[in-house]
Amino acid sequence: MLVVEGFSSLTGMTIGLIVNQTAVVDGVHLIDLVAGSTAVELGAVFAPEHGLRGLADAGELAVDGVDERTGVPVHSLYGANRQPTLDQLRNLDALVYDIQDVGCRFYTYIATMGLAMQRAAETGIPFVVLDRPEPQGGTRPQGPIGAVDVGSFVSPYPIPSAYAMTAGELAQAIKGEAWLPGLQSLDLRVIRVDGWRRGRIGQTTESDWVPPSPALPSLQSARAYPGTVLLEATTLSYGSGGPWPFSSVGAPWLDADTLAAALNGRSLPGVRFESVTMTADPAIAPRARFPNQQVPAVRIAITEPAAYEAVSTGVHLLAEAFAQADAGGHRVIDRPATFDLLAGSTSIRAGLEAGLPTADIVAGWQVELAAFEQIRGRYLLYP
User: What span, in angstroms and rounded, lies between the C-alpha atoms of 346 and 142?
Assistant: First the structure.
């Protein structure tokens, strides 16, 4: 909408853009649209994790540079600094955030957004969020509420694993609930997505999906990710470097046929499980598990996105994997602290290690999730 209106609400301003490769409007990057506008001036570009073009691997630090087309400085927000510096904002009249998110607490773009909001408030300039659709559908928050770790980029707010809010809605909640200090005076402006409605999953399709990071090349990966991200802290492959990143699980010792059958026998909504084999290419994912080795695996095939429950499905998957691992003397969770940080609490790991029924583990976060629903409802912008 901001582009359609010719940036009229920011006329005369020198603006900084917080963007990556997803900031595209009708095939044209926002950087180029701003640079070509007579209404506003492009003063700086800020890039989150994975860099301006989204090619850097997870956790790979980035350095400052210059945008080749415009000659405008590009400042990394995932390197020496995690916030824009006062000096970088000195000649800017507004900060504009336009990044397609995944709707998950542990995806670091929302941490970058909050820190940039703080800096905008400190310098007294507006913070403008160009909203985009929530690819999970935006209807059903899932998973435990994260125990906030102030120093962590993967648990910055007390929100569930999948929070079912757009970036603009979340920005309003971060300010309104004082989840970060110093935002009381922030001039926060959200430019709504034209025509998006909650629950209409089909509005975002594979053909128009721009991967927000190398690990999520497809909508299938993005929709499975809220549950399978936990596999990052295990000895299992989550498909990185293969054909189904974050929508598959594998290991040399895994009995994929038995695992797929057991999971299908649980009749989980909106999903079926297929026994496959996969090989991780280290040229695609340098830190992939079992590189160049064909391993048995189970593919998560989401059949009904609106019904699919990613987080609880991830717990069911881990429970069955635990059963096989225990029988074969294998270890599943090898980084418990990271697992707990991603999960948002110790309860999932403790329940899995104790062999609790999956239904009991999932039930353990429902009360706090209901309380979050009350908070969330105050900030929703779309029907």
Answer: 16
Which of the 8 DSSP states describes residue 181? T
Q: Are strands 73-76 and 65-66 parallel, antiparallel or unpaired?
A: antiparallel
End-to-end CA distance of the chain: 18
- Residues 340-378 pLDDT 10s: 999 999 999 999 999 999 999 999 999 999 999 999 999
pTM of this structure: 0.95
The Cα 247–Cα 260 span in angstroms is 13
**What is the chain's length?**
383
Out of 3.30.310.10, 3.30.450.20, 3.90.1150.140, 1.10.10.1150, the CATH code matching 215-364 is 3.90.1150.140
Tokens coding 148: 């906030």
What residue spans of 125-205 are helical by DSSP H? Answer: 167-176
Q: What is the CA radius of gyration of the chain?
A: 21
